């Protein structure tokens, strides 16, 4: 079987790995073997955390909506229930943005939700 030296393929592979490891600390940015391990872990973390980010933001939005609804004398669950009864289809992201940037608008929505929950 003939000897294979790889040539440019080997260099390209090393360059690609080290490019991904740019900014890592110590040997993780310069030693190919160590850099490969570091890059592999970093890619796993980024894949996992792209999904975690969605959960984290939803939690944040719920906390903001809960706090704003509490200022208007409503529990979070009753507020969401009132919106559902009224057929107001605003997601939590929009509600959180309204609570922070336009509290008077959020207050009007909360008042309507409160009335909807109060009626049997």
Explain what you see.
- The protein is an all-alpha fold and 120 residues long.
- It is 75% helix and 0% strand.
- The chain has 5 helices and no strands.
- It has helices at residues 8-20, 32-71, 76-86, 92-101, 103-118.
- The protein is rod-shaped, with a radius of gyration of 26 Å.
- The mean pLDDT is 95.
Comma- or semicolon-separated keywords:
mainly alpha, 120 residues
Structural class: mainly alpha
Proportion of beta-strand residues:
under 5%
Helix content: over 70%
Q: How many angstroms separate the termini?
A: 85 Å
The major β-sheet equals: none
Spans with pLDDT under 50 lasting ≥5 residues?
none
3D shape: rod-shaped
**DSSP helical segment count:** 5
Mean of pLDDT: 95
Q: SSE order in H/E notation?
A: HHHHH
Strand runs, count: 0
Cα gyration radius (Å): 26 Å
Q: Quick summary of this structure?
A:
Helices cover 75% and strands 0% of the residues.
């Amino acid at each position: 079987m003939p000897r294979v030296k790889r040539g440019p393929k080997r260099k390209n592979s090393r360059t690609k790995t080290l490019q991904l490891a740019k900014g890592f600390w110590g040997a993780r940015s310069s030693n190919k073997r160590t850099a490969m391990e570091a890059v592999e872990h970093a890619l796993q973390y980024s894949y996992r955390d792209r999904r975690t980010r969605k959960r984290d933001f939803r939690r944040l939005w719920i906390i903001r909506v809960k706090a704003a609804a509490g200022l208007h004398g409503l529990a979070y669950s009753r507020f969401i229930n009132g919106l559902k009864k009224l057929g107001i289809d605003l997601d939590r992201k929009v509600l959180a943005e309204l609570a922070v940037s336009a509290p008077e608008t959020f207050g009007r929505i909360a008042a309507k939700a409160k009335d909807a929950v109060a009626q049997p």
